[in-house]
Amino acid sequence: MITSIDQNTKLYGVLGNPVRHSLSPLMHNAAFLESGINAVYLAFESIDIKSAIQSMRALDIKGMSITIPHKSSVIPLLDEVDPQAKDIGAVNTIVNVDSKLTGYNTDAAGALRALEEATPVSGRSCVIVGAGGAARAIGYILKKNNINLIITNRTQKRGKELSKALDSRFIEPEQLKDIDTDILINTTPVGMSPDTDLCPVPEEALKQEMTVMDIIYNPGRTKLLKTARDRGCKIINGLGMFIYQGAEQFKLWTGQEAPVEIMKRVVEEALYNKE
Ligand code: NAP
Fold this sequence. Notes:
Mean pLDDT: 95
Structural class: alpha/beta
Strand order of the largest sheet: 2-1-3-5-6-4
Bound molecules: NADP nicotinamide-adenine-dinucleotide phosphate
Strand content: 15-25%
């Protein structure tokens, strides 16, 4: 994607383990190119977060996406953490200005933008399936947007901890079929490629007129989304959240609006032209 690299090219990247499957380099390099920004974005696979962050300072890497397993462990290594990322307890973006590293969380805003594109959010009810890092970020932003939240999770202890932190209700997965909700969001990896026959919720939980979001984007239509569509629900896959969290990162790094159409097109081509 890069047409020219020279002495002024700025360096960005994604740091995690594993990251070789990541579509972030494709997406951000396309965005830099489209916006005429002299920058390049690479994938750094590392388990040693401390050394990686030291290298970011030493090499003046201007910005970093942070992914599994470093989203929480990176926090004490930064100079400053945005209050929202602090509340969520996870950083997925670092901005380096004159060697001062500031952490942000753009997963939350990305998920909200994707959801709001499909349905009104404020004042409605939502069930989040799962209680991991993504559930925490999404639950946090939904609470801020006046959503009546219910959490369900395979492991009760973790589910109850998150529901307490978010001042929401916990239900067991078996209770899902008896719940009436406007929105249901799957934040577990259940149904992700290659295990595409799996569905994280019972079919009866999916009622007509519900909005069902799966934050998985590979495959584009999970078993959950296919079933939900057949039962008359509005469906949203995880691509929007991925693109919009990246768009927020781009804005933090460059101060410019991200070229989301291009970002979406290159990621869709890479993901779904193979399906
Ligand atoms: P995480 O912190 O490891 O949490 C995973 C959650 O899924 C936990 O609640 C876990 O339950 C549950 N889970 C895992 N396997 C399960 C199974 N077989 N049955 C039932 N529940 C199960 O992971 P995360 O960072 O939140 O990420 C979760 C998913 O979101 C991943 O698929 C990731 O790729 C996707 N994601 C997408 C985006 C996007 O931009 N679209 C962004 C972030 C993440 P227990 O507590 O019982 O273990």
